[in-house]
Amino acid sequence: MPTDKPKLRIGLIGTGFMGKTHVFGFAAAQRVFDLPYEIVLHTVADRNEELAADAARTLGFAKSSGDWRSLVADPEIDVVDITAPNAFHKEMALAAIKAGKHVYCEKPLAPLPEDAQEMAHAAEAKGVKTQVGFNYLCNPMFALARTMIEGGELGEIRSYRGLHAEDYMADTEGPFTFRHDPAGGGALADLGSHALATAEYLLGPIERIMGDAVTVIDSRPDGKGGRRSVEVDDVGRAFLRFASGATGSIEASWIAMGRKMQHDFEVYGSKGALVFSQERFNELHFYNAADAAGRRGFRCIEAGPDHAPYGLFCVAPGHQLGFNDLKAIEIARYIEAIAGRGPEPFGFRAGFRIQQLVDATTRSARRAAWVALDEQPAFAPA
Amino acid sequence: MPTDKPKLRIGLIGTGFMGKTHVFGFAAAQRVFDLPYEIVLHTVADRNEELAADAARTLGFAKSSGDWRSLVADPEIDVVDITAPNAFHKEMALAAIKAGKHVYCEKPLAPLPEDAQEMAHAAEAKGVKTQVGFNYLCNPMFALARTMIEGGELGEIRSYRGLHAEDYMADTEGPFTFRHDPAGGGALADLGSHALATAEYLLGPIERIMGDAVTVIDSRPDGKGGRRSVEVDDVGRAFLRFASGATGSIEASWIAMGRKMQHDFEVYGSKGALVFSQERFNELHFYNAADAAGRRGFRCIEAGPDHAPYGLFCVAPGHQLGFNDLKAIEIARYIEAIAGRGPEPFGFRAGFRIQQLVDATTRSARRAAWVALDEQPAFAPA
Amino acid sequence: MPTDKPKLRIGLIGTGFMGKTHVFGFAAAQRVFDLPYEIVLHTVADRNEELAADAARTLGFAKSSGDWRSLVADPEIDVVDITAPNAFHKEMALAAIKAGKHVYCEKPLAPLPEDAQEMAHAAEAKGVKTQVGFNYLCNPMFALARTMIEGGELGEIRSYRGLHAEDYMADTEGPFTFRHDPAGGGALADLGSHALATAEYLLGPIERIMGDAVTVIDSRPDGKGGRRSVEVDDVGRAFLRFASGATGSIEASWIAMGRKMQHDFEVYGSKGALVFSQERFNELHFYNAADAAGRRGFRCIEAGPDHAPYGLFCVAPGHQLGFNDLKAIEIARYIEAIAGRGPEPFGFRAGFRIQQLVDATTRSARRAAWVALDEQPAFAPA
Amino acid sequence: MPTDKPKLRIGLIGTGFMGKTHVFGFAAAQRVFDLPYEIVLHTVADRNEELAADAARTLGFAKSSGDWRSLVADPEIDVVDITAPNAFHKEMALAAIKAGKHVYCEKPLAPLPEDAQEMAHAAEAKGVKTQVGFNYLCNPMFALARTMIEGGELGEIRSYRGLHAEDYMADTEGPFTFRHDPAGGGALADLGSHALATAEYLLGPIERIMGDAVTVIDSRPDGKGGRRSVEVDDVGRAFLRFASGATGSIEASWIAMGRKMQHDFEVYGSKGALVFSQERFNELHFYNAADAAGRRGFRCIEAGPDHAPYGLFCVAPGHQLGFNDLKAIEIARYIEAIAGRGPEPFGFRAGFRIQQLVDATTRSARRAAWVALDEQPAFAPA
Asked: E strands within D246-339?
């Protein structure tokens, strides 16, 4: 789709499920939004030339490479998009930053907060635009919730309950994977990160955390006929203290049998409340204490053109956005940020923050004591 | 996205909301599915050169034209995609068929069943592949419902309730539009068509209909300071007799205040039941009478990779498809049909059938008598 | 519980499930409400002395009788409560009226409208107070709905959907019973009567009906090893025209597999809508079109002390009334009417009306033509 | 209602809302269940003779007294039922036990666990039957949940989430009451007690607790024109460790704006899950991992005769029990226990246990450390 717009050339590293999802997102963002750039799918890199060439064909990239370093080095590429396994995120991102590229990295930025900090630091020092993939936050109903909270529609915010529960690790016979690696794995890291991100997105900074972390399935098949011990949490919980004075809790579980996407929140204020479930993410339930007596109740607001940018996808309410649409919104906002039209929606600094929160929760659980976020290594901009 | 696949060159007529939705759909279908063709957005036509040129830029077509006839005549174009106002559907489609093009036409195929019949007839005579846009039917949960019904999971099907209710015409001060035109307008035509299509998709052919049609808002602003009388139905209802022996009902309303997308159905069989609402279209509720005593209940099945082609959009259940994803599925199936890999999912013959059903309902309401579908002008293939 | 209040002595005929339910209701009404009378469970009658004596012991009546006529003749008895099989309703009620008793009769008043008319006529001529058991109408949320409709909170009422679906006749091997008797049986008579009663309770008089009646299970075990042909409807439907100008529909089914209590309604007006399901009968869902843009949605109002007489049962909202509580409300209102403190909440005239509506629906279905309610034998007060 | 059964003579102390609810419960229990005794409402006591005499008339007691001690001393009375303010529970109960009466006491048994222990101890030493009012546990759907858990239908139980949230203290201008008294007040004591009781009812003993307790509204009107400082918790939370190895959490809040009865739980096992909300307490949602692929989902089981003792209230499923029906079940079970037909369903020992759990949660919150239940003063039977 040639246009008069300046080109933004994307180099994608990694061609698995998230790589494909990113490509869907770039394509949809370009169709749905009036972006400041023409997006060009320039090069895709994978472990070897053959895989990369296949991916280029399937995903629609002009070039391919079996070496991610050559992609990073290519002066034609503007944005390096990292969907490779977590263990590579840091090295790839730092190389891309050093090469002056904007960097879009799937979550987690890095399992260890100090690594995430280093990455955020490097990006800010270099002045490149960064993004970590927290697509749930791109839901128009999240924006509505935050607008309502900030606008005082709920009055003073008093308490919060957040969840992210799924069941993809519920099977005792599910194999040991990188997600079970003690350095950065676990339900808190994988799903709690989302629950914590949503909590801060809605209520602002968390100051203190009391964590709880439980390993339920303590060994898993090691792929060689034996079993390997698992130390990471299958269920994590936290009590929260927000800087605003509100308190709350979150829970993360990847063994919540039957749950496919229970990324839920409840916000209680002095004048109203909000209830949301990602299982029905085109709805937001709102209780307005100012409604007439005998007529009060949680009302089910259905997403529609009143809730930007829904209207760019569909002119009629109730038709519903899908998961991939949220990814398109995430990408569109990032591209706006690259063009200087708005703040980075969820940059590396935010990604580092989330790793701090996860780490604080895990450490708190280990110590059985409250952990203040200021106990964390301070983020030191250059 | 150049590939080795043969090219399928699209000529789009009309650049309004549905035109944009189709372009989203073509793009997404190409990304998500392994289509037999490379889709090329070749030419877009609109009322004049300027509008068309703008649309080409925005939507990503290589060429533009202010004259739809030249688009139809262009030998490079394989598929003519008609999203122009309903009144033009017949003329455009017949011209495209005559030119040997495959034709994709937004619903309704034509307001009058005899026109729709003529179009279906022409397409079959010429041997081109056609499609009418009934995207709700492309929901994986509809496929699941039909599979369950056909596979006997509900036992003998006994009764059916269908709905399609929205509220976009609920405002008495909403202006008179082409949808209020007595020749083919009304809630039954606009929304009842969906309800009837879903009924036949799930339970097979309807044999007889008793209709009910009610005008609630009998005049609307004419745009010139006065009001214009409205004769079409704001609410339509029908009792149904299916060839299978099942009976049922549907209702269509565009003044159902508060409803944004109540395209719902309930199917009751001798062994189970299904309940669905388009307001939560990633769910299907299933009652299995064979469940253990004291443990029976409607279970909420969430869409996931078990329900093809969901897995092509997302590898994890519960993440949810959106409205535009349904459009992508619709288009992908059409393109498969063009390649001869499957039947036309919803060709002109089906579009004609829907117009017959709508017309039968409306005539029945007028006569206050059952109308058999075989009273309709029989479809006469060449 | 001796009090200074005048005594109201009850004579109960029939000791099956409904008899027991009535006794629960009398007891609860007396406890919960400040009734104008002290209720005395005076005599219970059943088919023979022994059964009656047992029932007196179990249910707490002072006396018993094997002959309902002696109960009716007993000058000490003030109210005759008839829960005997439907076939006896007329004879018993007329005898009781003749004896000057107030009469409380389970629904249906009588299968044939002319019988129901005769009973209503007799009661009015004699000046006794009557009641037919339509307990769903006693739900505080029904009162709320009617208050909202009458108070204009929904604007002009435009359309209505009503249902009453259960599955207790879904089993093909369920035996032939009196409910399958062509004279007055069927789903419309048993359940449609409730749906029609609710429709008129909320929207006022129905003027015309187009009915649909379907026999799905056309024979049932006759209890003697054979099968007996069934002619009554398993599913009934109707289009409705209300005197107010609103239109609507109802459906009744006793073969709706999985449904236990789908007595539902949806009311659509020019300013709002109401949605209710008896499956969650302590809730009423209200859409208010006047809510702020982007904040509109159906709100779930939970029953509470704002909705009289809920507060007499429980001081806190959300605790929920049960089915038997509705029966207590029904009885309390009847006793108020006997004391002259209010109108008969659902007297024999109303019971007759319901039989007219059921009969009109059935006749309309047979004729396949609209039936006006004024075609009915007019009710002729003495 | 005279019978041949032995009489069980009730002496009620306190005539407020809970007193009335108990009387409803005694009356309904007697009607609905075939109890081993004839219940006689013997004497009611209140602060003075006049109030007591009024209550006797209204509630149906034969005698009244302005002195609870004389009621306790009355040799004719079998059961002393205490619904007086919490502060009197201990003194009244100990006196009644000393007099050899069975004692039914509203919750909390006593604010301080050592007092509750003393009461439990005294009752066991004397051999009288006791009961504390935990009516939520009497819901047939709770029994179903426990049956399913104990029967292994969910496999190994892994995690638990419990809630009890309401909003009756959400108003900053709500007055200071005895519930705000630092000795035993707060949301954890009032509502958390229910959440903890449900957790142990379903999953068995809790071994360790990490608590969180937050005061949100730190002063309330003192009734004299000023404000009084509030120290008790408005929101309480806890992480839980069960003896079974399962872990979980509960939350209690009385400032959860919009919530009227969010007494909810979710239980996750290796083979299935249960989800329940008291807002719809006639439903239990069950996920069965053994259901067929593509057909799995939480199923909504509606209460019915399969779930004893529902069938004693109503022969048909889906008709729903109400709050007062739960109270009747609670009382019926207690009376069975008095007759030696079953264990005390929720005796003083259980009431003491709950106070221990609440106390452990509060102490843990204060210390910010896990509290083991065995740190509690051990219960020392005589």
From this structure: 247-253, 262-269, 272-277, 283-288, 298-302
Whether A299 and C299 lie within 8 Å, measured CB to CB: yes
Strands (E), chain A: 7-13, 38-45, 63-65, 79-82, 102-105, 130-132, 157-165, 206-214, 219-221, 227-229, 235-242, 247-253, 264-269, 272-277, 283-288, 297-302, 371-372
- The residue of chain C with its CA nearest to that of D29 is C24
SS3 C72: helix
| Continuous H helices in D132-260 | 140-150, 187, 193-203
pLDDT at A371: 97
Note the pLDDT tens digit of each residue in D39-89: 999 999 999 999 999 999 888 899 999 999 999 999 999 999 999 988 899
Mark A364-374 as b/e (b = at least 16 C-beta within 10 Å): bbeeeebbebe
- Residue listed under structure tokens 């498969």: B336
Give the separation between CA B89 and CA D166, rounded to whole angstroms. Answer: 58
Question: DSSP character for B176?
Answer: P
| Homologous superfamily, domain A137-319+345-372 | Dihydrodipicolinate Reductase; domain 2 (3.30.360.10)
Domains C7-136 and C137-319+345-372 agree in fold: no
The percent of chain D in helix, strand and coil, each rounded to the nearest 5, is 35, 25, 40
Cross-chain residue pair A296–D170, CB shorter than 8 Å: no
Contacts of B202 (CB under 8 A, 6+ apart): B142, B145, B146, B149, B160, B265, B267
Residue with tokens 């919490």: D86
State the amino acid at position B103 in one-letter form: V
Q: How confident is the model at residue D183, as a pLDDT? A: 80
Task: Look up tokens 């843990």; give the residue.
Answer: D364
The span from the CA of D147 to the CA of D201, in Å, is 11
Contact D58, C33 (CB under 8 A): no
Q: How many CB atoms lie within 10 A of CB C370?
A: 17
In whole angstroms, how far apart are CA D107 and each of D110, D121, D135?
8, 17, 10
| Cα Rg of chain B (Å, integer) | 21
Contacts of A289 (CB under 8 A, 6+ apart): A155, A271, A272, A296, D170, D257, D258
- Tokens (6 digits) for C76: 């000490």
**Closest CB from C295, C296, C301 relative to A297:** C301
In tens, the pLDDT along A85-117 reads: 888 999 999 999 999 999 999 988 988 889 999
Comparing C-alpha atoms, which of A189, A181, A179 is closest to residue A238?
A189
Residues C242 and C209: their CA atoms lie apart, in Å, by 9
Alpha helix ranges (H) inside B14-103: 17-32, 49-59, 68-73, 89-98
Query: Domain boundaries in chain A?
Result: 7-136, 137-319+345-372
d(CA A133, CA A331): 9
Phi and psi at residue C32, to the nearest 5°: -85, -40
Kindly list the residues from chain A whose CB atom is less than 8 angstroms away from the CB atom of residue C300.
Answer: 297-300
- Nearest by CB: A210 against D212, D268, D296: D212
DSSP C162-194: EEEE--TT--TTSPP-GGG-TTT-SHIIIIIHH
DSSP per position, B341-352: SS--SS-HHHHH
Give chains near B: 3+ CB pairs under 8 A. A, C, D
Is CATH 2.130.10.10 correct for C7-136?
A: no
Nearest residue of chain B to residue A321 (CA atoms) = B322
Tokens 């996407």, residue located? A261
* Chain C: residue whose CA lies nearest to A287: C299
| Cα D43 to Cα D64: distance, rounded to the nearest angstrom | 5
Q: Could you tell me the CA-to-CA distances from D72 to D83, D86, D92, D101, D102 in Å, in that order?
A: 14, 17, 8, 8, 10
CB neighbours of residue A235 within 10 Å: 29
Q: Per-residue pLDDT for C238 more than 80?
A: yes
